[in-house]
Amino acid sequence: MIDNIFRPVSVRRGFEEVLEQFEGAILEGHLSAGDRLPPERELAAKFGISRNSVREALRVFEALGVVKVQRGAETGGSIVRREPGDAFVQLLKLYLLLKHISIEHVVDMLIVISSWAARKVASSPKHEEIAADLGKFVTSMKKSGQKHESYDEIDAEFHVAVVAAAGNELANLVMEGCSSALRRLIRAPFAESPVWDSIHNQRVKEHSRIVRAIKSGDASGAENLMQRHIRTWSDRAIEVARLNEIPLT
Q: Are 218 and 118 contacting, i.e. CB atoms less than 8 angstroms apart?
């Protein structure tokens, strides 16, 4: 089937048109996850372009996480990936670092995804099991005490775990892409706070309430508690960071 889906391309456009044809082949169902592409030499002949142009197109697809290029005489070649690569996550992280996306917009997205996830897992038939797993994070938070760096990492992992438990792959990718910004948002503004004990205790209580709501199957309660928790601490963190000129992205 692959032999008949590609046609010669304009040399002027080269690898861009190769990309368009690959995309079209995937959309039309001629290429599927796990399919092995023909060798570069064969693709170059089919497209009527140089092997360098084909190689460039494959590199772009590899960077996008669509194609996996394997090396080796027997196992080498290009394969359409069965699992998504991390291109989306890395691109989102770069957008945040370059300030193409504001921290306020990151917070809005975190609230949407996390509060939805809290409702989803509280509504799940496995809500008690999920709550038990999330409760382990809260236990670790309590033990972290004065070590704010340890606490901050556990806090971020808790939120990532809630979204992961909801079982939505796109939400997981967005959450993973925002994870670095989430960690900075949690850590940076309060790292040297003289009232860290109070902050620590309050955050642990809020996470505990979220877990209890999930355990009891209170979907609305879990959603509202998660939304309020992220909004309250994010707003405080952004205010403190700006007053002290602490970068968050």
A: no
Contacts (Cβ under 8 Å, ≥6 apart) of 28 = 5
Residue with tokens 């140089």: 50
In a domain, 248, yes or no: no
pTM more than 0.85: no
**Separation of CA 189 from chain center:** 23
Per the structure, how many domains does the chain have?
Answer: 2
Which tens digit of pLDDT belongs to each residue from 28-72? 888 888 888 888 888 888 888 888 888 888 888 888 888 888 765
Summarised one tens digit per residue, pLDDT across range 177-227 is: 887 777 777 776 676 667 878 888 899 999 999 999 999 999 999 999 999
Q: Are residues 57 and 141 in the same domain?
A: no
Contacts of 171 (CB under 8 A, 6+ apart): 113, 116, 117, 163
Rounded to whole angstroms, the Cα distance separating 29 from 221 reads: 43
- The verdict on 53 and 117 lying in the same domain is no
Contact 76, 188 (CB under 8 A): no
The domain of 26 spans 2-80
Q: Is 217 helix (H, G, I), strand (E, B) or coil?
A: coil
CATH code for the domain in which residue 96 is found = 1.20.120.530
